[in-house]
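Field log, afternoon session.

UNIT: design team B
ACTIVITY: writing a sequence onto a fixed backbone
BACKBONE:
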C-alpha cells in the first residue's frame, strides 16, 4: 500500500518519458497496478434532472439525494489533480441545474485540469454558456439523438425547440471562443438507427463543421423486462448500412470523433449484446467515476467501492479492494459495455497530447 500510494507516481513520470499512454495501460493490466495515471474523471454534481429521457429513470425517482457541496467536490478535485487526471467531466442529472456551476468549473480550471459538462441543453442559454466559459469551461457536450422533432420528443421527453436554442448557444460560444470544444453526443437506439447520417449532415451544415459529433450505443438498463430501445435482429442490415455511411463520412472529413473500429463494434453490441473479440477493459485504470452521492465506482456500470465523504480517493485508488475489482473487470466479470469513455482507443492518442501540454491557466475574462 505504502509503495503504491507514494512511489507509483514517481515510477509513472519516469515511464512517461519513454512510453506512450497506451503502453502504460498495457503495463497496468499486466502487473495489476495503476502504473498509468487516470486520464479522465466523471463527477456527478447533482442527481436532479429537468428532462424526461425515455431510456433514463433518474427523473422518476421520488426523492433526489442532496447535491454535494463545493467544499466536498474541492477535496475530490485536489485528489484528481494529484492522481494526474487531465479532464474532469461535470455530469448529473443535469449539471446546469446547479446555480453555482460556474464556481465549480472555476475550481476545476484553477486546479490545472480541463473542465467540461454534458447537458440536455434546456438551460443552455447564450448568457449562461459565456459565463461558464469565462469561469474556465473548456468543452460542452450537448445530448442530441435526432434532428427529427418527433423522435427527439419521444427519446428526451421535452420539446425539440429546447435543443434548437441550445445548439445555437453552442455555435455562439464557439464563434467567440475558438479554443473551446463543442460537441453533440448521440445515443444510437431502435428509433434513430436510420437517422444517423441525416444527423451528421444537419449538424455539420448548421455549424460549419465547428461542432464535433460523438456516437454512443444504447446500453441495456438492468431490471427492464421489455426494452424496446434495442433494435430487432431484422434491422441489423439497416444499422450496418448506416454505420458504413458514417465511416465514409468520417473519411471524407466530417467531424465524427469516433474511431472507425469503435463504429464497427456498435451494431453487434447494440442488437446482440456482443462485446468485441479479445477486448480487455481498462476503464478502472484510465478513468475515475464518482456519482452525485460521492460514491466511487470502478466504472460507471458497477456498484460503489468507497464513500468519498469518508474515504480518501487517492488511498482507495491504490487499495487492494480496487486492485481486486480491476482484475475482475479485466477478466470480463461484468455485464460489458460499449461506452465511449471506456472503450474508445483514440482516447489513448488524446492522452499523449494532453500529457505533453503544461497545466492550463484560466486567463479568460
Amino acid at each position: 500500500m505504502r509503495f503504491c500510494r507514494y512511489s507509483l507516481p514517481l515510477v509513472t513520470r519516469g515511464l512517461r518519458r519513454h512510453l506512450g499512454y497506451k503502453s502504460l495501460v498495457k503495463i497496468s493490466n499486466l502487473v495489476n497496478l495503476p502504473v498509468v495515471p487516470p486520464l479522465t474523471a466523471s463527477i456527478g454534481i447533482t442527481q436532479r434532472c429537468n428532462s424526461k429521457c425515455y431510456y433514463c429513470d433518474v427523473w422518476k425517482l421520488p426523492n433526489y439525494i442532496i447535491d454535494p457541496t463545493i467544499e466536498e467536490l474541492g477535496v475530490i478535485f485536489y485528489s484528481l489533480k494529484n492522481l494526474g487526471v487531465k479532464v474532469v467531466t461535470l455530469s448529473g442529472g443535469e449539471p446546469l441545474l446547479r446555480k453555482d456551476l460556474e464556481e465549480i468549473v472555476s475550481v476545476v480550471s484553477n486546479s490545472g485540469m480541463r473542465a467540461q459538462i454534458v447537458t440536455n441543453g434546456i438551460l443552455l442559454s447564450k448568457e449562461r454558456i459565456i459565463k461558464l466559459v469565462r469561469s474556465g469551461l473548456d468543452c460542452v457536450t450537448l445530448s442530441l439523438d435526432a434532428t427529427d422533432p418527433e423522435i427527439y420528443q419521444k427519446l428526451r421527453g421535452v420539446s425539440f425547440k429546447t435543443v434548437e436554442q441550445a445548439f445555437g448557444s453552442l455555435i455562439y460560444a464557439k464563434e467567440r471562443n475558438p479554443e473551446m470544444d463543442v460537441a453533440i453526443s448521440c445515443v444510437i437506439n431502435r428509433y434513430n438507427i436510420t437517422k444517423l447520417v441525416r444527423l451528421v449532415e444537419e449538424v455539420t451544415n448548421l455549424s460549419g463543421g465547428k461542432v464535433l459529433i460523438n456516437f454512443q450505443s444504447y446500453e441495456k438498463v438492468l431490471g427492464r423486462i421489455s426494452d424496446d430501445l434495442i433494435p430487432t435482429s431484422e434491422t441489423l442490415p439497416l444499422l450496418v448500412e448506416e454505420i458504413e455511411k458514417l465511416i465514409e463520412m468520417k473519411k471524407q472529413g466530417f467531424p465524427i470523433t469516433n474511431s472507425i473500429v469503435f463504429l464497427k463494434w456498435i451494431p453487434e453490441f447494440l442488437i446482440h449484446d456482443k462485446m468485441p473479440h479479445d477486448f480487455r477493459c481498462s476503464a478502472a485504470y484510465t478513468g475515475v467515476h464518482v456519482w452525485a452521492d460521492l460514491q466511487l465506482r470502478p466504472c460507471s456500470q458497477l456498484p460503489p467501492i468507497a464513500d468519498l465523504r469518508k474515504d480518501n480517493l487517492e488511498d482507495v485508488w491504490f487499495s487492494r479492494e480496487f486492485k481486486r475489482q480491476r482484475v475482475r473487470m479485466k477478466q470480463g466479470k461484468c455485464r460489458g459495455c460499449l461506452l465511449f469513455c471506456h472503450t474508445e482507443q483514440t482516447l489513448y492518442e488524446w492522452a499523449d497530447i494532453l500529457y505533453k501540454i503544461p497545466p492550463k491557466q484560466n486567463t479568460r475574462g
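LOG NOTE: The chain has one domain: 2-354.
NEXT ACTIVITY: expression trials, pending approval
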